[in-house]
Automatic annotation (TrEMBL):
Main localization of the protein described in the UniProt heading: membrane
Record bears the keyword Transmembrane: yes
Keyword presence, Heme: no
InterPro entries: MFS, MFS_trans_sf
Taxonomy of the source species: Bacteria, Pseudomonadati, Pseudomonadota, Alphaproteobacteria, Sphingomonadales
Subcellular location: Cell membrane
Entry keyword set: Cell membrane, Membrane, Transmembrane, Transmembrane helix, Transport
Record membrane topology: Multi-pass membrane protein
Pfam families assigned: MFS_1
Transmembrane segments: 21-43, 55-74, 86-105, 178-197, 229-253, 265-287, 299-318, 338-362, 374-399
Superkingdom in the source lineage: Bacteria
The protein's name: MFS transporter
Length: 429
């Protein structure tokens, strides 16, 4: 068996790792550049900022809900490496369109630019829908059984490190530079995707159902009757609902509660990404390669405690003078900032420890010819849960609930996730 990090030397893993990293980096560079531009340069109202972020999040999630069943069927029917090459080709055209939207908005054509940017977000969601099942389902096909947890952890860590890189960069480069970079990275990702080894169909060819509603229902029905999959998918869905709420409220919370600029907003998301990456790698060492939910309940309960602490830290944070925002230097020298950032890092580490073993359950519980459809079923349920979370944020914001109070709702969802993870642990370990 090769160690988890040793997989990075293997052609059966490295090209997928690089392709996944570049895709997630590009996705987050574009989305973060768009959100920060809208939050700090277009809107000047906390409610409008959160509504825009919720709309963008909802558009990114919608394709997962409608098309995950189709993507899973295709991935279990055709060579997964061939689908990767097609998806990476389409990404180039999406990024050209999105970059044009950024430039149009910057040039003063705000309505047209925002419409194009949101359209690009919808298309990027579609892109991710077809790539998502493959990045996990291909692992059992290319890796040994005892390497799957380590490979899953590395893929998850790569996702969040790419979020880190894309988020930081978006906060520091001009909109025009971001527009050029997303096209260049898409081209590099296309070359990396061509290096992924073949991963042909493992079982019989499927009769593909193209109806998004009946195919989704049949896919979920065929998966959720397995107790460990049902519990894993429900726990992951709670986790991503939590994630969707945090993603929506964070930019507005940083601007209006921590009174900091877009570079600080970028930094806080980056810290969160580093934390999830640390947790994703650490759990493999803690479990020594065994797929188990042993640490998931306590991890997500610890996450809930940290979220509550973060809520109270935000309430007591000393704001910048009226009409000004803290820059990175001023924020980092603020006497309360280190505690805020350390708490945020702890939230992310515990989240990574919680979720990685659950994804490993998805790909090791079923046969290799069903893994993509299992991940796709998970994506359908996850996207539905995240959509509910996005709508809830809009409704709760409309009722006057502030971001720091909304964090308490996140903590309550962590408790529900812990209960599900504990049931999974008892059922399987």
């Amino acid at each position: 068996m090769i160690s988890a990090l040793g997989l990075l030397k293997e052609r059966r893993f490295l090209p997928l790792f690089v392709t996944q990293f570049l895709g997630a980096f590009n996705d987050n560079l574009f989305k973060t550049a768009m959100v920060l531009f809208a939050t700090y340069q277009v809107f000047n109202d906390p409610a409008l900022e959160q509504h825009f972020n919720a709309l963008a999040t909802g558009l990114a999630i919608l394709p997962f809900f409608l098309l995950s069943a189709l993507s899973g069927q295709l991935a279990d029917t055709f060579d997964k490496s061939r689908i990767i090459r097609i998806v990476k080709t389409v990404e180039i055209f999406i990024m050209v369109f999105g970059a044009a939207g950024l430039l149009a908005a910057k040039a003063g054509y705000t309505s047209v630019g925002i419409g194009m940017m949101l359209g690009a977000v919808l298309m990027l969601g579609t892109h991710s829908t077809f790539f998502g099942p493959i990045k996990y389902a291909i692992l059992p096909q290319h890796l040994q059984d005892e390497e799957v947890l380590g490979g899953t952890g590395l893929v998850e860590a790569a996702t969040y490190l790419s979020i880190l890189a894309g988020t930081i960069l978006a906060g520091y480069v001009a909109v025009e530079v971001a527009a050029g970079l997303v096209v260049i990275v898409a081209l590099i990702g296309w070359f990396a995707g061509r290096m992924v080894p073949p991963a042909p169909r493992m079982g019989p060819k499927l009769k593909i159902n193209y109806n998004p509603f009946t195919s989704s229902w049949r896919l979920i029905s065929a998966t959720m009757h397995i107790p460990r999959l049902f519990l894993a998918i429900c726990a992951i869905s709670f986790f991503w609902t939590i994630g969707s709420v945090l993603i929506i409220i964070f930019p507005a919370l940083v601007k209006n509660v921590l009174t900091a600029d877009e570079q600080v907003a970028s930094l806080t998301i980056a810290v969160f990404s580093v934390g999830v990456a640390i947790g994703s790698v650490a759990i493999n060492a803690m479990l020594k390669g065994k797929v188990s939910a042993r640490y998931s309940p306590v991890a997500v309960l610890a996450m809930a405690v940290c979220v509550v602490a973060f809520s109270f830290e935000a309430r007591g944070f000393t704001p910048a003078p009226t009409g000004t925002l803290y820059g990175v230097g001023d924020f980092l020298t603020h006497p309360q900032s280190l505690v805020v950032m350390a708490t945020l890092l702890a939230i992310a580490i515990t989240g990574g420890i919680f979720v990685v073993p659950l994804y490993a359950f998805l790909t090791t519980t079923v046969t290799k010819d069903q893994t993509a459809r299992t991940v796709a079923a998970n994506n359908v349920v996850n996207s539905g849960a995240m959509t509910i979370g996005s709508i809830a944020v809009i409704v709760i914001t409309g009722l006057g609930v502030t971001p720091e109070n909304m964090l308490l709702l996140v903590a309550a969802m962590c408790v529900a996730s812990a209960w599900l993870a504990q049931k999974l642990h008892r059922a399987c370990d």
